[in-house]
Structures are given as C-alpha cells and as structure tokens.
Design goal:
single chain; alpha/beta; five-stranded parallel beta sheet; 21 helices; 7 strands; 49% helix
Length: 471
C-alpha cells in the first residue's frame, strides 16, 4: 500500500527540478493567497480545514486558482493518508484498489484516507457510483477538483455527500503577493538570485495571467531562466522580456463547456438590459476565443424578436440582415455587421409583448376550449361554396378606415398587449381606435349577423364574386 500513499512531509518536500509553480505551492494558510470569501479567517472552509474536519468536498473554478493547493493543505492538516489521481487516467478498477487499501488502513491503523480526484467531471456515472458507498461510510474522504460546474457533471447522489466550494479567479492583488513570494523565497523561489523585475513587467505578468497563479509563475520562470544575466550577474526582467513570455492574454472560454453558456447568457442579458458596451465586449471575447459568429448572429435575431419586438420592428430586420451578412462575408469582417446589429438591438426600445402573446396563445391552444374556424372565414372555392364557406365575410377595404367589425375568433381572448414604449405606442393607439369602432358598431355586425347584415354581406359577395375570401 506504500505505493499509493505518501505522507504530508513527503508532499511538501522541495524538489529543485520541479516547475516554479509546483515548488511555490502553499504549505500553510499564511502562504495561501486569494479565495478570502471561502478560505479567509473564520470562514467555513478555513475552519473545517484547520479542525481537520473538511469531509468530502468538491472544489470547482478556473485553473490556477488554488483548488489543488487547498486540497493538499487540507489533507496535511487532517492527519489522513493521501492519494492523488486524475479522472482522465483512473478507471473503476483503480478506484477499487484505492478503496481496498483505504479499508485496510482504516481497519489496521484507524486512519482515514483522503482521495484527491482531479478533473472529476471526466468520470462517467458508473465511475462516480463506484465511489458512493465508501464516501457514504467514510472509508475515504473525497476531494474532487473540476473546472466545470459540478451540478451539471457530477451525480446528484455524490453531490449530496459533499460540500461544494467555488473558487474564483485570483485578483491582481493576490497575484502580486504570489509574485513577490516567488521572488523572495530562498528555498523554493528566486530569493538567492539577484533579479530586477521592472514594475511594468510585473504589471504585465499579473494582468495577462488572467487570474491564474500557475500561468503567472510559469511565465516568471520562463522570463528569469531565459534572460542572460548582465556582467555583474543581475538578471533584468523588463517589459520586453515579460511581453515575450506572455504575448497574448488567454481567453478563458471553452465552446463546449459551461463558459460557452455563461458568456452567451451575459451577451444576451446585456443586449436585453440596453448596455451596448457590455454586449459588444462579450461578443468580442467569444469571437476572440473562436466562437462561430453565426451562433452570435442567431442570438441577436432571437433577442430582436423576443425582447425588442414591435417596440422597434426595424430591429429584427437589421438582425436578419446581419445574419445574412455574417453568412456571406465570414470572419474577420463579419464582426462589423454583427457589432452594428448588437449596438442597434441593445439601444432599441424593449417590449416582449409579441413573445408573451404567442406564449399565451400556445397555452390557449393546448389547454383552452376547442375553436373551429367561423364559416365566414373559411376558404371559398367552387367545391365549398355549396357548404356556405365564406358566406357573410366582410372585405375590410370596402369599409371606412379599412376596418369592419366581424368575428375572427370564437370565444375571443386577448393575447397581444402592446406597451407604452417605442413604436408600440402607435400600435396601441390603433388598437384603441379599432376597439372604439367595435364598441360603436351597429347591432348585428359582430359576426352574429342580423338578417339585414347578412343580406348586405351576400350582396357584397355577389358584387365581388371573384374576390378571394381568404384575404
């Protein structure tokens, strides 16, 4: 069993050949920077780790934010045996071996085992289920690490047996502390070397690390190790050297994972919230990460219809035009018509009246009373004339204002309710005008015709025998 477990003293032993990021892993809370909301003094996770009572947990968040360091720190303070593995390379058979060794250790020495399972989201349901009984009985303390949302990738049964903690991207101040620690530490860092790190270079490294401590330390190591010292032995890391090792800021965006949906959500909600700057930023970030511009264009079309609607009908026209332009032009130029549509839709007056109308109508179709097409609205053809189809239909253009009162739907119900915003003000005025005409219409003109109205309709039909009644 000795090949599976290693003691805390072995885990923190300085390995001179290890990368700087591995050498600088925190050994105590004093060396752990960031995550104050969960790891700060007095916080639940901090109290649980200090008491050696963490229990099974899931740590999730972006890479380089301290998940592995926190798990190892917790294991070292719990006096438990510790085994680390990765879900990518670990199968059910491996899990059973670990559990078997953990049971033996618990029964022989009354010592628990902490299993650090990195990238746990790669475990399928069967593999996760293999852990359940022994996590439940406390044979192993599971600490699962993932960059994905665990509620989407981990079985609810396993989630219910673990505390879930979210790790946030590190702030610039936290990265600055980590950078200073690496520069001054004589055992694990560069404290024994004479290095001049320019302020501009330090700012560039922290800014372009995008909250990732591992990326920061890897960049620092590359800059220091590849910069030849001056004649006096001083290694000067200036802005040019720092820019060379981090030439492009990473875009933390995976088109196939949670980041895709989170960014798309922010993009849509920014347009809906009338913030063109935020909307264009999220659009640009997704495009920079390689997102399909057609995906973004389709979102703009949907939002133009759903959230702008008839408050500005031109929004949908422009959005569809942008989608066509994106299809025709392609990147990188497609970003221009796309930005134009995003800016227009973001600043357009908003109304979801049309969306609410169709939702209500669909619900009425599914759950409301059955409605047949009124006979005067039915299509009139040579075959159907004998059945009276179209008889009594009033052609609106034959009446003042191009409007006439007649029944268009049995058991009338209101679905579309325009708002007092944008062009819908005009629409609302029209509807109010028509409602007033209906209110003052003579008796027998509401589709339930009097004999006189029916005769008038028949005469109209005879007067215009070739009209399509389906107009």
């Amino acid at each position: 069993m000795s090949d599976l477990f290693f003691s805390e003293s072995q885990s923190v032993k300085t390995n001179a050949s290890a990368p700087l990021a591995a050498r600088m892993a925190p050994r105590t809370f004093d060396e752990f920077y960031g995550q104050e909301d969960i790891f700060g003094p007095g916080k639940l996770l901090r109290r649980a780790v200090e008491a050696g009572r963490l229990g099974s947990a899931i740590f999730f968040g972006p890479p380089g934010t301290g998940k592995t360091a926190a798990a190892k720190l917790a294991a070292s303070l719990s006096d438990s045996a510790f085994v680390e593995t990765n879900a990518v390379t670990c199968g059910v058979a491996d899990i059973r071996k670990i559990v078997s060794s953990a049971k033996l250790l618990l029964s022989s020495k009354n010592r628990r085992t902490t299993l650090l399972l990195d990238e746990i989201h790669h475990f399928n349901r069967t593999q996760q289920d293999a852990l359940l009984p022994d996590v439940e009985r406390g044979v192993i303390t599971l600490v699962g690490l993932t960059t994905e949302n665990p509620y989407f990738y981990i079985n609810p049964a396993l989630i219910s047996r673990a505390n879930v903690f979210e790790f946030k991207r590190l702030r610039a101040a936290d990265l600055g502390k980590i950078l200073s620690a690496a520069m001054s530490d004589k055992d694990r860092g560069y404290g024994l070397k004479t290095i001049e790190l320019a302020a501009a270079a330090a700012s560039h490294l922290t800014d372009y690390s995008a909250g990732d401590a591992r990326r920061l330390l890897n960049a620092l190591e590359l800059a220091v190790e590849t910069t030849p010292p001056r004649k006096d032995g001083v290694i000067v890391v200036d802005l040019a050297a720092a820019s060379e090792v981090i030439q492009k800021k990473p875009v933390l965006y995976d088109k196939s994972a949670d980041a895709h949906y989170d960014h798309a959500s922010a993009f849509i909600k920014s347009m809906r919230g009338s913030d063109p700057d935020a909307a264009i930023y999220w659009m640009s970030k997704m495009l920079s990460a390689g997102e399909d511009p057609r995906f973004l264009a389709r979102r703009v079309v949907i939002l133009a219809a759903e959230d702008v609607g008839t408050a500005d009908p031109q929004a949908l026209v422009l959005a569809v035009a942008a989608l066509n332009a994106v299809e025709f032009v392609g990147m990188p130029e497609a970003r221009i018509p796309l930005a134009e549509a995003v800016a227009y839709v973001s600043t357009a007056p908003k109304s979801n009246a049309a969306y609410l109308a169709v939702e209500a109508a669909m619900s009425e179709v599914a759950r409301g009373p059955e409605r047949d097409v009124p006979i005067h609205l039915k299509d009139s053809t040579a075959d159907s004339d004998a059945l009276g189809h179209g008889l009594g239909y009033k052609y609106p253009h034959d009446f003042p204002h191009g409007f006439v009162t007649q029944e268009y739907m049995p058991v009338p119900k209101k679905f579309y309710d325009p708002k007092e915003t944008g062009f819908e003000r005009e629409i609302k005025k029209r509807i109010d005008f028509w409602n007033n005409l209906r209110k003052n219409a003579p008796a027998g003109t509401d589709g339930k015709k009097s004999s006189e109205a029916a005769d008038k309709s028949v005469n109209d039909d005879e007067k215009y025998p070739k009209k399509k009644n389906s107009r």
